[in-house]
Amino acid sequence: MNAAQDGADAAAQGRLVKAGELARRTGLTRQALHVYVQMGLLEPAGTTQGGQRLFDEAAEGRVRSTKPTRNPIHATEQAHSCV
Asked: How far apart are CA 48 and CA 27, in angstroms?
């Protein structure tokens, strides 16, 4: 069995999610997740037969722990300084 088949089997059993679903759960874009992968902060657990990246449930926690937080007060101050 190859890695793509392993990933597809695991996804079918609900253990893995596609990048789009992980992005939706974490509030990031799929492109941001790709950058996380390129930086080595996140590693796909497998791929589908079509080449889509699959992530395990622990990936959501890793993304949340490394995702920059947004401070609404700081963002509002920045917006006011631009006006």
From this structure: 23
Domain boundaries, the chain: 3-82
Fold for 3-82, please state it: Multidrug-efflux Transporter Regulator; Chain: A; Domain 2 (1.10.1660)
Q: Are strands 53-56 and 46-47 parallel, antiparallel or unpaired?
A: antiparallel
Q: Which residues of the chain have pLDDT under 50?
A: 1, 3, 7, 10-11, 75-76, 78-80, 83
In the 8-state DSSP scheme, what is residue 13? T
CA pair distance 33, 20, nearest whole angstrom:
9
